[in-house]
Design a protein that fits this description.
Helix content is about 70%, strand content about 0%. The protein is built from 3 helices and no strands.
């Protein structure tokens, strides 16, 4: 069997296994994060989590498939390992960048929600103080 075909098979097996493992890990651990981002709405968190996992699979498996082609034939065992290391390294970097991108976007959404909650006062206003009123106002300047 040609070593290039062996490299393709090993690359696909490892890349697909890594993609599935990362997607399951992110899904399992990201659910709690999503529930916090979405203010405890569990059904919505599960739905968004599922959509993110499907998108993650599509993007990563599409990239793995597109990146399958090797520029040159693999002639020996050393070439096999070199080809696999480059391909798997790129796949791992893409997985990491996509993960960091997802976390960044979700964290921005979470922060926006926290800011909105902080702007709402804990009790409704009980009165109104006009300009220059209140105990913290500066004393009025003497009239000349």
């Amino acid at each position: 069997m040609d070593l290039t075909v062996v490299a393709y098979v090993i690359y696909l097996l490892i890349s697909v296994a890594l993609t599935v493992w990362v997607a399951r890990t992110l899904s399992r651990n990201g659910r709690v994060f999503l529930a916090g981002v979405l203010h405890g709405n569990e059904k919505l968190a599960d739905a968004v989590n599922h959509l993110l996992v499907v998108g993650f699979y599509l993007v990563n498996l599409g990239f793995v498939t597109l990146y399958l082609r090797n520029g040159e034939a693999v002639g020996d065992t050393r070439g096999l390992f070199e080809a696999l290391s480059v391909k798997l390294g790129v796949v791992l970097l893409v997985l990491g960048v996509l993960h960091l991108g997802n976390v960044y976007v979700l964290n921005k959404i979470r922060r926006r929600g926290l800011m909105e909650r902080e702007q709402t006062p804990p009790v409704p206003p009980q009165g109104w103080t006009g300009p220059g009123g209140g105990p913290w106002a500066a004393p009025a300047a003497p009239k000349v």
